[in-house]
Amino acid sequence: MADAVGIGxxxxxxxxxxxxxxxAAHEKEITQRVGARxxxxxxxxxxxxxxxNVVLPDSVFTDNATDVVSDPDIQVIIEVMGGIxxxxxxxxxxxxxxKHVISANKELIGTLGKELFDAADRAxxxxxxxxxxxxxxxxxxxxxxxxxxxxxxxxxxxxxxxTNYILTxxxxxxxxxxxxxxxxxxxxxxxLDPTADIEGFDAAAKLSILASIAFNANVVAGDVxxxxxxxxxxxxxxxxxxxxxxxxxxxxxxxxxxxxxxRVHPAMIPATHPLASVRDNLNAIFxxxxxxxxxxxxxxxxxxxxxAISVIGDVIDVARHIVGGGTGVRHASTGTAKVRPMNKTxxxxxxxxxxxxxxxxxxxxSQAFTDNDVSIRSVLQEGFGDEASLIMVTHTALEQNFQAxxxxxxxxxxxxxxxxxxxxxxxxx
Length: 429
Ligand code: HSE
Hints:
With 429 residues, this protein is of the alpha/beta class. The chain has three domains: 4-135 and 304-324, Rossmann fold, CATH 3.40.50; 140-294, Dihydrodipicolinate Reductase, domain 2, CATH 3.30.360.10; 342-424, Alpha-Beta Plaits, CATH 3.30.70.260. It is built from 14 helices and 17 strands. It has helices at 14-25, 27-34, 65-69, 87-96, 106-123, 140-146, 161-173, 177-186, 195-198, 201-214, 234-242, 304-324, 361-371, 399-411; strands spanning 4-10, 37-44, 61-62, 76-79, 100-103, 127-128, 152-158, 225-226, 245-256, 259-270, 282-289, 293-300, 346-355, 376-382, 389-394, 397-398, 415-424. It starts with a strand and ends in a 5-residue tail after the last strand. The site of L-homoserine has 11 residues, from helix 7.
C-alpha cells in the first residue's frame, strides 16, 4: 500500500487555496479515510510572484502546468483554473499520462464533457466533477451512484447563486435589478463577467452536465434553451406574488416522448413548492424519478469553501481506489436521445396585457387564446380606463402555440401592450 498519494493542483485561486488549506487542516481524518496521506506535490499558477495565503512551501509552485500533469510522482490532478483552454489540453495530457482528474470546471465540462468522458474511459482513469455543479451541494455523485438504478424523469434546479440572490432582493426588498447585481458582485457570487450568470449561461452549463448524467445523454450547454433574468421587473414579481407564485431562474431538464428537453428561464413557481423557499445565493436541485418520487438537494452553490469540500470528496474517493483498488462509476454519455426543440415543450404561462377598457375586449382577447389552442386558467382585471390591465394564467400549452398567441395579441387593436409574459412551472405540467 502506498504511504501517500501525489496530488497536482492546476490553479490556486479561491478554490485551489481552500482545497490546500482544508487538506492540511483535516490531514489526520483524511489520511484515515483514504488509508494514505494526500500530498500536494506541485501547483501550477499563472503568476509565481503573487502573494498567496496558503500552507504550501514555495518549492511546490511552478508556472509550467505541463510539469504538473507529467510528473510521475503525481497520481491525481485537481483542475481549478476554469475556462476552456488550457484546461482542456492539460486534462487530456493528464489522462494520457494515466492520471485521474478532478475538475470544478462547469464551462469546460458543459461544453466538451463527452470528449473528456471518452478520453478518461480510454485511458482507464477516473474523471470526477462534483464541484462543477452547485458548488458544495452533492448532486453529481448522488445521480451517478445513489440514483443509478432510477429512471430520472425530470430535474428542476436553481443552479445559479447570483441570479437567485438578485431575484430574492427584488422580491423581498423591492431592490432594482442593477443594485441587486452590484451587491451580488461585491459579495463575490458572480462570474468575472456577470453575463454568464444573468443571461443563464452558467445555469445552462450546469444543467447540461446534470442531464448528461441523469439521462445518460450526449448533450452540451448549447443544447439548452436559455433566457436570462434581465427582463424580469419588480412588477412581474409583485403580480406573481399576488397570484401565489415566486419568480426563480429555473433550470429544467426532462424526458419527453424519448427526447431530452432542457431549458433555463425565469419562471413562476407556486409559493408552496420547496424551490420557492430557496433564498439568497443558495442552490437547490429537485429530482423526480419513477420509483423514488421527489428528492431535493439544497445548499451553497458557490464560494471557495463549499466548492473545495466537493473537490476534496472526489479526491478522497479517487485516492481510496488508488490505495485499495476498484474504480468509481464511469460516465460515458452513450445515449442517443435527441434534444427536443423548445417550441415542442409544454408549460403554463402568465401574460400581462395593457388593454383598452371597453365592451368586447375580453371576448377578443379570449378568441385569440382559442384560435391558438391555449386554454385560460385564470384572468384578472386590474385598474380601469387608461390604466386597465389583464393578468392571465393559462393551462398547460405548447410553447409554439403560446408564442403564436403573443404575436396575435400584439396585433389586436384593443391590446395596447403585451407588457410581459413568463412561464409558470406547476404541478399541472
Ligand atoms: N457564479 C456562479 C453562481 C458561481 O452565481 O452560482 C458558482 O458556479
